[in-house]
Amino acid sequence: MDNIHSVSGDDFDGVRVPLVEEEEERLGIQAADETAHQISHDPWYQVGFVLTTGVNSAYVLGYSGSVMVPLGWIAGTTGLLLAAALSLYANVLLARLHEIGGKRHIRYRDLAGHIYGRKIYALTWALQYVNLFMINTGYIILAGQALKATFVIYRDDAALKLPYCIAIAGLVCALFAFGIPHLSALRVWLGFSTFLSLVYIITAFVLSLRDGMSTPHRDYHIPGSHTDKIFTTIGSVASLVFAYNTGMLPEIQATVKPPVIKNMEKALWFQFTVGVLPLYAVTFMGYWAYGSSTSSYLLNSVKGPFWVKTMANIAAFLQTVIALHIFASPMYEYLDTEYGKGKGHAFSFLNLSFRVLVRGGYLTVNTLVAALFPFLGDFMSLTGALSTFPLTFVLANHMYLKAKKNKLSATRKAWHWLNVVGFSCLAVAAAVAALRLIVVDSKTYHLFADL
């Protein structure tokens, strides 16, 4: 246990937690590597809320347009339910690999490196970096859209363009990142996040219901030519898996108290039962109300009192700031562990200035990319294709095969290999479709487009 390095809320260097330490020693488990962030500290329900915060972030306001419109009622509904079941299965597999070889593997790349070696360690880290970078870029686009939508409610004169809103959003996200040293420190902010999620989800649901009841006819045809439909359908499949998966499950699991696997499975069941209900409610209601004309940001479609729409957009903006911090935390942990001093109070001048410099630089790059290519649906598809499929489905199934090969029946081995091959093919097809969508949109809209 000598290499566990956890922190208290007030001390970046921190102290070890005696009860957690005793439990892990009893189980013969050690953390695989040192970290400047806090581990083995959070109850399962806090981890469950971390996962649910990611699922019900403001991204849910885009699924009516990015998933249901290209797929329609039957394929869209079936796809959302099937993707949830497959995602739960894959995440449980991954959670059960957290403690192998007598160690807790607190990072995705550490787990892959333990099973495969150094080359796959580097590949996994690259895939995860791409995944989290693009998710964070999407969050900044979302936050900018929420600000722009708020402005348009009162002044539709294009004085405040989307790139300006994205720049403001990036600045606010950076200020929040400076003040939250590690993932476990979110604590009370998860409560605020849940409340903010309910504000924009309930608002979007109620206003969509009202609009749908007052509109006698909606068009649900799938738009586009035959070729366009093929590519948008494949791209939407990538968005389906993007909706449920974090790409950083071992990092989140590292924060949970022992027994780690049992508690993580509780958190996952919470995410995929109670946690997905708001997502379904707003996605299906939005599509029912507006059909194939549903906006990629649902609050742009709804009609209602100005103050209600303003409240929902501001809630979406603020919740996005919190959710982005979750998906940026693996990068922050890496930078803090490798380059940060990690000594003394979390808000000492040295530690705070390090966060301002390093996290500020990271989010500046995110913000620049978000302003250059503000095509949110395309980002969801490309992220799902390039990283969510490989990390959550392909790698999880293959790692489970490698780790448990002597304990699996021939039937179970065949099942896991089917998942590996099938999801690899889907990942390639989805990546091609997503890149095509970005190329098409880049021709339609100029850089720094005011969408």
Automatic annotation (TrEMBL):
Keywords: Amino-acid transport, Membrane, Transmembrane, Transmembrane helix, Transport. The chain crosses the membrane at residues 71-94, 120-141, 161-181, 188-210, 230-247, 268-290, 310-335, 356-373, 379-396, 417-439. InterPro entries: AA_transpt_TM (IPR013057). It comes from the Eukaryota. The keyword Acetylation does not apply. It is found in: Membrane. Residues 44-435 form the Amino acid transporter transmembrane domain. The keyword Heme does not apply. One of its GO terms (cellular component) is membrane. GO terms for biological process: amino acid transport. Pfam families: Aa_trans (PF01490). This is Proline transporter 2 isoform X1. The lineage of its organism: Eukaryota, Viridiplantae, Streptophyta, Embryophyta, Tracheophyta.
